[in-house]
Structure formats: C-alpha cells, structure tokens
C-alpha cells in the first residue's frame, strides 16, 4: 500500500510501513496538572485530531470520553479513508468534521504548521496546543496517559484509569497486548515469509485466549474496574472481525 509522508515539509509518496513503528517521527511533549511544564493542563487550550478508522486514535477518544473531557479538550475527526494526500478533512461526510482550529484541508498541514521542515509520517492521533500553535504529542499511549493523569481537576467523571497501586500491573498488561495483539494482528498482512505469516496469525489468537481466561474470573483485565489496559485492547477487538478479516490479515485464523 502506498500512502505518503513529509520530507523536509514536502509531501511525497511512500510505502505503508506496516505494523506500529512510530519511533523516530513522533512528537513526545507532555502536559502536566501542576501548571509548571511547557504544556500545563488547562481547559480549552488543547485540541485532538483523530480518525474513526484508527485504533490508536480510538484509544485516545475512549479515554477522553471515559474521563468526561469533551468540554475541556476539543476534537476534530478526519476522513476514515486515507487517500493520496493522507488524512483529509471532509466535513461533507456525516461522521467527519472540518479543521476547526485552522481550517486546513489536510492533516499534514497541521504538521507543517507546527514544523515547516518536518520529515516523517503524518499520523493520528494528534494532541495540539492552540496557545503555542504546535503539536504536543502524536503518540497514542502518551496522549491517553496524559488525558487520564493531567486533567483530573477539569474532568466531569471521577475515573482513574491508571491508579498508582495498579500501575505496574496495568503497564505489564499493556506491554503484553501491544506485543501480541496491538499491533500484532496487523503483522500478518505485512509478513514477507510463510513462516512469518503463520506466526503472526497464531500469536493474536493465543493471546486472546489467554486474556479470555483472565476475563472469566474478573470483570476487566486488571481487576474490577476498567483501566488503560482495557482502553488499549478494546479498539483492536472492536475491529477484529469485520475490518481485519476483510483485509485478509488473519485469513488463516482457527476455525
């Protein structure tokens, strides 16, 4: 699959890189609730860009909803289909919105507005700071944790998705499901050997069987209350049947 990327601020065609491997082209700024850092947690300052098609953006949208931050952090939704110019704002579609911050047509314009010489992929989700007009972070796990931890004072729901006494367990579960399920289910579609494909197909099902047994004895992955572990797993489970099998990523599934 050919999509595209920015090279020194110019859009060029580039092959899809496959499973999640963001690394070198991510912003990694952080918000904090103590008001001291470069990006203090303030209501009506930050804006999210998400896609309904992207499981990584979905986990951030879920965190925002569970915490009750809809009136604290605004959001726009790009077209679920990426075309030659990447993620696009198509407000004519019922489930999409315009770019309410700058009125841009493409998400890549947000990236070049933040850094005119940016080189890297244009991904969702994006946490954008309207005060400094720059991208704070485009790594979904970081953004979800920031929404959970930094904005409690303004959240309408008294929900802690990563309580301190459970944080080690939650982080271990997240690491496990990331290795074998998120984005393990996509690895099959990009495997270049038969052995690699068969391993990639088997691993998600083995992992899901393991976590199914856990959920047989407790309500959520880390106990009696939902945590970020559940938030990080759900988007892939939601897409597991219809989307992933339709892409033939897992056409060798058991049964």
Give a short synopsis of this structure:
With 255 residues, this protein is α/β, with parallel strands linked by helices.
* Record field, number of beta strands: 8
Uncertain runs with pLDDT below 50, 5 residues or more? Answer: 19-24
Largest sheet: 4 strands, mixed
Number of domains: 2
Level-2 CATH architecture of the largest domain: 3-Layer(aba) Sandwich
CATH evolutionary superfamily of the largest domain = Glutaredoxin
Helical region count? 7
What would you report as the Rg, rounded to the nearest angstrom? 19 Å
Taken in chain order, the helices and strands follow as EEEEEHEHEEHHHHH
Walk me through what this model shows:
With 255 residues, the chain is an alpha/beta fold. The chain has two domains: 146 residues, Glutaredoxin (3-Layer(aba) Sandwich), CATH 3.40.30.10; 83 residues, Glutathione S-transferase Yfyf (Class Pi), Chain A, domain 2, CATH 1.20.1050. Helices cover 35% and strands 11% of the residues. The chain contains seven helices and eight strands, in the order E-E-E-E-E-H-E-H-E-E-H-H-H-H-H. Strands 6-5-7-8 form a four-stranded mixed sheet, sandwiched between helices. The longest helix is centred in the last third of the chain and has 22 residues. It is globular, with a radius of gyration of 19 Å. It starts with a strand and ends in a 9-residue tail after the last helix.
Could you list some keywords that capture this structure?
Glutathione-S-Trfase_C_sf, four-stranded mixed β-sheet, 255 residues, alpha/beta, Glutathione S-transferase family protein, 35% helix, Glutathione S-transferase Yfyf (Class Pi), Chain A, domain 2, two-stranded antiparallel ribbon, Glutaredoxin, Glutathione_S-Trfase_N, 2 domains
């Amino acid at each position: 699959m050919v999509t595209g990327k920015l090279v020194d601020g110019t859009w060029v065609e580039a092959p899809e890189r496959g499973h999640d491997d963001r690394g070198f082209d991510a912003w990694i700024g952080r918000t904090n609730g103590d008001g001291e850092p470069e990006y203090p947690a303030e209501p009506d300052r930050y804006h999210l860009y998400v896609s309904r098609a992207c499981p990584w953006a979905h986990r951030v949208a879920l965190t925002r909803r569970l915490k009750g931050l809809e009136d604290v952090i605004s959001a726009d939704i790009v077209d679920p289909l990426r075309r030659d110019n990447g993620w696009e704002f198509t407000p004519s579609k019922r489930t999409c919105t315009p770019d309410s911050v700058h009125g841009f047509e493409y998400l890549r314009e947000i990236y070049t507005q933040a850094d005119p010489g940016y080189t890297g992929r244009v991904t969702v989700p994006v946490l954008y700071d309207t005060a400094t007009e720059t991208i704070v972070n485009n790594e979904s796990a970081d953004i979800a944790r920031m929404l959970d931890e930094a904005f409690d004072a303004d959240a309408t729901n008294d929900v802690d998705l990563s309580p301190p006494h459970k944080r080690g367990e939650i982080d271990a579960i997240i690491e496990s499901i990331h290795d074998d399920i998120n984005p393990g289910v996509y690895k099959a579609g990009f495997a270049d050997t038969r052995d690699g494909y068969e391993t990639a197909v088997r691993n998600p099902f083995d992992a899901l069987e393991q976590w199914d047994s856990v959920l047989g004895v407790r309500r959520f992955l880390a106990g009696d209350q939902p945590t970020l572990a559940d938030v990080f797993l759900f988007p892939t489970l939601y897409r597991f049947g219809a989307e992933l099998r339709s892409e033939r990523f897992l056409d060798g599934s058991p049964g």
